[in-house]
Hints:
- With about 140 residues, the protein is α+β, with helices and mostly antiparallel strands.
- The protein has helices at about 55-60, 80-85, 100-105, 110-120, and strands at about 15, 25-30, 35, 40-45, 45-50, 70-75, 90-95, 130-135.
- It has a single domain, classed as 3-Layer(aba) Sandwich (L-fuculose-1-phosphate Aldolase).
- It holds the Pfam family ThiN.
Amino acid sequence: MKLARLVPEVGMNVVGATPYAESPEECAAVEGRITRRLDGVGANGGVRFGASSHVARFLIAAREYEPDYRFAVNCRFDDAVEQALEALSWPVGSYDRSEQPDEVESVEGSTMQWGARQAFGAESPRRSRCTTRVRSGKSR
């Protein structure tokens, strides 16, 4: 599978956290995201701490359940990716953003924490690797 197929329309961000990171400012990410280009994919900027808010917040929240997690990426998730992960025997968690409560949606920055609870919380199996499938279509 070519890497460009994994890059979503909004671009891809790869985030890495230091072992004791507790905030997005302590996570390094590609500034400006990774995007598709005619010749493949490329970073729009360098790597720096605090460059990601969205994916970094998800990673920090996921570490509440899996403290050893160090990296997160947002990528296109389709049937081919799901089949590849199943072939690797990686567990796939999921959450549906249309089920997000209004009180979560109304607080800036809280969606990622809610999503991590849905994917990694008490209802989900804790594993050393997990891919989270997000259904992002909001029906509100």
